[in-house]
Amino acid sequence: ASIVHPETPLEEDRGDLSLRPRYLQEFLGQAAMKENLSVFISAAKQRKESLDHLFLIGPPGLGKTTLAQVVANELGVDFKVTSAPALDKPKDLAGILTTVTEGTVFFIDEIHRLKPTIEEMLYIAMEDYELDWIIGQGPSARTIRIPIPPFTLVGATTKAGMVSSPLISRFGITCRFSFYEQADMEAIVHRSAGILKVSIDDDAAALIASSSRGTPRVANRLLRRMRDFAQVLEQGHISRRVVQEGLKRLEIDSLGLERYDREILKIIIERYNGGPVGAETLAISVGEAVDTLEDYYEPYLIQAGLLQRTPRGRMVTPFAYEHLNLERNSNGNN
Ligand code: ADP
């Protein structure tokens, strides 16, 4: 299984529970977003109202679920969590909505995957705090409306473009997550190391941080792996040397790329002279579905400044040549 791709759930991520920040103060990075949120939270608390529905957008592993839980803790209310694919039948949603208490934070992950019937139900719940419920069957069937306490829906998605506009319009607050800065990533590594009670040098934390794709989930995974290497190599202390050796063994490079990420760049360089190459053609060349390529591999390659999406297709950047230590073909058109 891939370590640096935060979207593949790993068994070991379950162990993250203790690493999860519980309050805004422990939630590192994303400063601008946090500042706004803390204002909205205080205001809602002062007015003794539920917080506006909250829409969280961002790549996997950046802390959307964590933030939803933090918001519930800050407000001092119940927290319920589900994901859109788990809401198959109306009764699945009704089952949760009927247990909502005053101000509950109800988190729905992957909200772009809601079924239309469920989405309709959710509109009413979000807007009127009511649950439409059909009782009976056939001609005697009738709809009753069950009131539910005011609550806060937190919807999270990695693909804002796939969320319907009626749903988006029902969220009062939108938070966009960006990949974490190096300094924030280092702070996260140090915080996690403290919780896991492992000793780590600053330059070792910096290297884990820079190899983690700006993604806390990846940093926590790498930290745990490095703890293992450290146990074998240096009596449990994580030094920079341990991290260098560990990353080498895991075939993770200084930008947090795994072999397959590098393979994609190499194919564009070697077969298509650096690009542009169409997404379909590229997908076939690397043996992946276009969706997988676009959703899974490309975002970070683009973010890291290695790849560009252009109207004519994908192109590697000069930085990609540099990073892979490959010569640019002077006949190339880039
Ligand atoms: P998402 O829901 O966006 O996929 P999660 O909320 O599951 O991401 O976060 C993944 C892990 O990363 C969490 O278990 C948590 O330990 C860590 N994490 C996320 N955001 C932060 C943060 N801002 N500060 C510290 N750790 C974080």
TrEMBL record:
It is an enzyme of class 3 (hydrolase). DNA binds at R309, R314. Its EC number is 3.6.4.-. Residues 50-184 form the AAA+ ATPase domain. It holds the Pfam family AAA_lid_4. InterPro entries: AAA+_ATPase, AAA_lid_4, DNA_helicase_Holl-junc_RuvB, P-loop_NTPase, RuvB-like_N, RuvB_wg_C, WH-like_DNA-bd_sf, WH_DNA-bd_sf. Keywords: ATP-binding, Cytoplasm, DNA damage, DNA recombination, DNA repair, DNA-binding, Helicase, Hydrolase, Nucleotide-binding. GO terms for biological process: DNA recombination; DNA repair. CDD domains: AAA. Residues 254-334 are annotated as: Head domain (RuvB-H). It is found in: Cytoplasm. Homohexamer. Forms an RuvA(8)-RuvB(12)-Holliday junction (HJ) complex. HJ DNA is sandwiched between 2 RuvA tetramers; dsDNA enters through RuvA and exits via RuvB. An RuvB hexamer assembles on each DNA strand where it exits the tetramer. Each RuvB hexamer is contacted by two RuvA subunits (via domain III) on 2 adjacent RuvB subunits; this complex drives branch migration. In the full resolvosome a probable DNA-RuvA(4)-RuvB(12)-RuvC(2) complex forms which resolves the HJ. Has 3 domains, the large (RuvB-L) and small ATPase (RuvB-S) domains and the C-terminal head (RuvB-H) domain. The head domain binds DNA, while the ATPase domains jointly bind ATP, ADP or are empty depending on the state of the subunit in the translocation cycle. During a single DNA translocation step the structure of each domain remains the same, but their relative positions change. The RuvA-RuvB-RuvC complex processes Holliday junction (HJ) DNA during genetic recombination and DNA repair, while the RuvA-RuvB complex plays an important role in the rescue of blocked DNA replication forks via replication fork reversal (RFR). RuvA specifically binds to HJ cruciform DNA, conferring on it an open structure. The RuvB hexamer acts as an ATP-dependent pump, pulling dsDNA into and through the RuvAB complex. RuvB forms 2 homohexamers on either side of HJ DNA bound by 1 or 2 RuvA tetramers; 4 subunits per hexamer contact DNA at a time. HAMAP family: DNA_HJ_migration_RuvB. This is Holliday junction branch migration complex subunit RuvB. It comes from Gracilinema caldarium (strain ATCC 51460 / DSM 7334 / H1). The gene is ruvB.
